[in-house]
Amino acid sequence: MASTPRPARPASLPRRTGRQLRRAFGARHEPLARPLDRARARAWLLALVGGLLAVAVSVIGSLLLYRSTAPQAAADRVRLHQVDAVVAVLPDHGAVTGSRFAGGYSNRIGVEAAWNYPMGTAHTGTVEAPRTAVAGTVVPIWVDPAGNATNPPADRAALAVSAACTGAGALLGVLALLTLALRLRLRVLDRRAEAVWTTSWARLEPLWSGRAGHRREE
Q1: What are phi and psi of 201, to 5 degrees?
Q2: Distance (Å, whole) CA 147 – CA 123
Q3: Cβ burial, residue 167 (10 Å; 0-12/13-18/19+)
Q4: Which phi-psi region, left, alpha or beta, contains residue 7 (left: φ > 0; alpha: ψ -120 to 50)?
Q5: Which residues make beta-bridge pairs with 7?
């Protein structure tokens, strides 16, 4: 009893990639492979290599950006101090600070407050406090070594997220450019292939249809 032939297994990804590479550089001799086919394979290969390089550069750039900002944030956490400020004067309704969001305005407002830093040195200034703050409310603030109010030190997680977002944005931009360049290149190759096909058909169609023989008989 004859055995049933087994269906051919599809080529693995490394083998398919190797075939594409050999075709792109002309090392794989195929009777039906045209120069335009090799040019199209090279275009895809260059786009793939460019995308992989863009990913690598994006990751490395994000790491370098984080490493360049993390030391300053660590130094700020050592240099700056958190103290308690006492709200002295509430602002009028127009002194609300912060940005607009889905639920309304930010719940932080600017108020006049007083604090002591270094010990025994009095300071006054405008600080941010909750909208519900009243005179006498204690608000934690950050100050520099001289006692002046300043922004809080950057958080490590925030720095990491910022660096990752910057790298991802740059990566998306590069990938968009690569995609556009690939599409333009493939469009040019398709037009060339269409022109070659039209020329070949104009030359072979009379022979294939027999019209060339009719003309010779006439």
Answers
A1: -65, -40
A2: 7
A3: buried
A4: beta
A5: none
Q: What is the DSSP letter of 115?
A: E
pTM: 0.61
pLDDT of residue 146: 92
- Residue corresponding to tokens 């009719």: 214
What pLDDT digit, counting tens, does each position of 46-89 carry? 999 999 999 999 999 999 999 999 999 999 989 999 999 999 87
Tokens representing residue 18 in the block:
């190797």
pLDDT single digits (tens) 3-41: 555 555 555 556 665 665 565 555 455 555 567 878 888
As given in the structure block, the two tokens for residue 4 are 């049933």
Please give the Cα distance from 76 to 82 (Å, whole number): 12
Query: How far apart (Å, rounded) are the C-alpha atoms in residues 58 and 166?
Result: 9
CB atoms within 10 A of CB 133: 19
